[in-house]
Specification:
Blueprint: E1 5-8, E2 24-27, H1 33-40, H2 60-69
Parallel strand pairs: 1-2
Length: about 70
């Protein structure tokens, strides 16, 4: 009975992984609220599965923004 929405900026990976997904998909950056809140509506739960996992990334501010703030 839940409406499921995938929110992804597709900076890594591809939408091909979502073929056959019965819910909605919004291409936007989660951190940019104005880009998606009007399209998604009320949110009851978030499963945050996006992260920068590349151990060579040295931009700590970016890492915190994506992995924690997001």
């Amino acid at each position: 009975g839940w409406r499921v929405v995938v929110l992804d900026d597709f900076s890594v990976g591809t939408f091909e992984n979502l073929k056959g997904f019965p819910g909605d998909c919004v291409a936007a950056d989660f951190r940019d609220l104005s880009a998606w809140t009007g399209r998604v509506g009320k949110v009851d739960a978030v499963f945050h599965q996006a992260a920068i996992t590349d151990t060579t990334v040295m931009d700590q501010k970016l890492m915190m923004s994506v992995n924690v703030d997001g």
